[in-house]
Amino acid sequence: xxxxxxxxxxxxxxxxxxxxxxxxxxxxxxxxxxxxxxxxxxxxxxxxxxxxxxxxxxxxxxxxxxxxxxxxxxxxxxxxxxxxxxxxxxxxxxxxxxxxxxxxxxxxxxxxxxxxxxxxxxxxx
Length: 125
What we know:
- It is a single chain.
- With 125 residues, this protein is an all-beta fold.
- The chain has no helices and 11 strands.
- The protein has strands spanning 3-7, 10-13, 18-25, 34-39, 46-51, 58-60, 68-73, 78-83, 92-98, 114-115, 119-124.
- Strands 2, 4, 5, 6, 9, 10 and 11 form a 7-stranded mixed β-sheet that branches.
């Protein structure tokens, strides 16, 4: 039984920042790759950022590179997504996902086994 719970979403003005958290239970996230995805209304769920189990590699979608930072605190069994310089196009439901133990971050939905319930991020103009 694995549960992932995202928190930290909300309404923010363009140019502002938010920090999302993903707390896990039933599994030690320090031994698994983790990722963040997002889904806007009428669009498919897309990869945002990922981090390997060791923290040795981080990957980002081109649309968020340089603005978002993924990190992990294995002692707290938590993964974070720091989002800076937010844009209206970042508005979406953000999901945390637990994946495998490979050397590379998976960018497809199929690479992940467990998903959180999502947290809404809304960026106003």
